[in-house]
Amino acid sequence: MMFSILWRLFSHPLTRDLDVDDPRTTELRKRIIRENPLLRSVYISWYHDVLNRLPQISGSVLELGTGAGFLNEFIPGLMTADVQCVKGLTLVCSATQLPFRESSLRAIVLLNVFHHVPGARAFFEQCRRCLKPGGRLILVEPWITQISRLVYAHVHYEPFDQNISDWDLPPSGPLSGGNDALAWVVFQRDLAEFRRRHPGLKVIEIKPLVNFRYFLSGGVSMRCLAPGWLNGPIKVLEDTLPSRWFAFFARVVLERAHHNGKD
Question: What CATH number has the domain spanning 2-256?
Answer without folding.
Answer: 3.40.50.150
